[in-house]
Write a structure and sequence with these properties.
With 424 residues, the protein is of the alpha+beta class. It is 49% helix and 10% strand. The chain contains 15 helices and 12 strands.
């Protein structure tokens, strides 16, 4: 997908916010697992595009960008050899070869920029790529669907928050990670400010300053996922509070005998109250609810959240086994449930070097089966239950590694913490 330019225009040139959000996280995880720089590049190109083209001034994200401009499909995106030469001059030849730009073209006589060279060649052509991007900005842009959808924005919030956390650990990427963090925070503030009622309920959509329609299950679950990632990036307790409040509202208003309905108990009356279970282009509300509740159980010290998830996972297991491609989010939830996930609480001044050293170990590598909390020592109970009744050890920042609310002895040094995390 990435060599064919999907990071710049998904599918048939029309960009859906949910595609970009999910692909960015897939490539981010692939980079964490493999260390392949190309995957990280795709993450950056995808999220940079969203910042540039699909972010509202108010902080939310546009839902889609069209394929057409000036009445022609893909006119904004494709190139001819002469157009490339006009921009790059003498530097055009290596670019034309590396991106397979020909007179015949690969799309209706024009060229989708399809990279065929090595990663080193791609890096060497970054300047040329940037100049073409600047030239493209002068073209007539495709139209955008400027409504905001809470669920889709929640997915993109998760992508930016996780990317900010992961990339922020790398040399030379601090500035980009800071931008992603600010975008994530702006998105969260927008969603909680514009698409949440004074009573703590969510709306489904927003446009031109007006939020409309009672939120559906996926609006709650996908926003919870995004806010969970943002809390674990910033450790700002306000994001945890919002997660907990939304989870309680979801349970109160959407709960079914097993799992959840797609509509709330005060939604408009329907002949049949829907309960979608299968994952589609976006994760199902029920699949994401199971995932989010399993994670939140550790932060909130509430086993009942995990019990709700386990009940519906048991019900869904035969369908996951028979039709795995239709239940991707469910399989992620099941993997989390079976992994003996860890809860990690770090207590120390957030900006202190010793605290940061512990945090660096806890966040190192790809660790999908854990949740984390971090807070300064205080005489007042932390808003995050995982951090409550935990303090410094002999005046030193400490890390507590727990499973099912049972914690091992705290450690104050990075290497003992690493040893604990490597145990299975």
């Amino acid at each position: 997908m990435s060599v064919k330019g999907v990071s710049d225009f998904a599918g048939h040139f029309e960009k859906m916010l949910y595609d970009s959000a999910q692909l960015a996280r897939v490539y981010l995880h692939a980079w964490q697992v493999t260390g392949e720089p190309f995957y990280r590049t795709i993450v950056e190109e995808t999220l940079d595009y969203v910042v540039r083209e699909m972010t509202l001034p108010e902080g939310g994200f546009y839902s889609t960008q069209d394929a057409d401009s000036e009445g022609e499909e893909a006119k904004f995106f494709v190139w001819t050899p002469d157009e490339v030469r006009a921009v790059l001059g003498d530097q055009a030849k290596p670019f034309l070869v590396a991106y397979d730009v020909t007179e015949q073209g690969n799309f209706e006589g024009h060229n989708i920029l399809e990279f065929t060279g090595s990663l080193g060649e791609r890096a060497s052509l970054a300047g040329a790529h940037r100049r073409l991007l600047e030239a493209r900005e002068k073209r007539v842009h495709p139209g955008r669907d400027d409504k905001v959808l809470t669920s889709w924005d929640g997915l993109m919030l998760a992508a930016f928050a996780e990317a900010a956390r992961v990339l922020g650990r790398e040399d030379g990427l601090a500035e980009r990670a800071h931008i992603y963090r600010q975008v994530a925070k702006g998105s969260a503030e927008f969603l909680l400010g514009e698409l949440r009622t004074p009573e703590g309920r969510l709306y489904y959509t927003w446009k031109d300053g007006v939020a409309r329609v009672n939120g559906y299950l996926e609006d709650y679950t996908h926003l919870i996922e995004g806010l969970l990632e943002l809390y674990q990036t910033t450790f700002d307790p306000r994001w945890y509070r919002a997660v907990h409040e939304l989870a309680e509202a979801m349970i109160e208003h959407f709960r079914a005998s097993e799992g959840f309905y797609d509509t709330s108990d005060d939604h408009e009356s329907l002949i049949v109250r829907p309960r979608e279970l299968q994952d589609n282009a976006v994760p199902s509300g029920n699949g994401m609810a199971a995932t989010a509740l399993l994670k939140l159980a550790g932060l909130a010290n509430k086993p009942r959240y995990a019990e709700l998830a386990h009940q519906v996972l048991a019900q869904m297991q035969p369908m996951m086994a028979q039709y795995p491609l239709g239940f991707g989010q469910w399989l992620q939830a099941l993997a989390y449930a079976l992994s003996q996930p860890r809860e990690i609480a770090i207590v120390g001044e957030p900006d202190a070097g010793d605290t940061r050293a512990l945090l660096a170990v806890a966040q190192d590598g790809y660790r999908p089966f854990q949740v984390m909390g971090l807070g300064a020592p205080s005489t007042q109970p932390s808003p995050v239950p995982l951090l409550q009744s935990r303090g410094l050890v002999d005046g030193w920042p400490a890390a507590y590694v727990c499973h099912n609310l049972t914690c091992q002895a705290p450690v104050t040094e990075p290497e003992p913490l690493r040893a604990l995390l490597e145990q299975r």
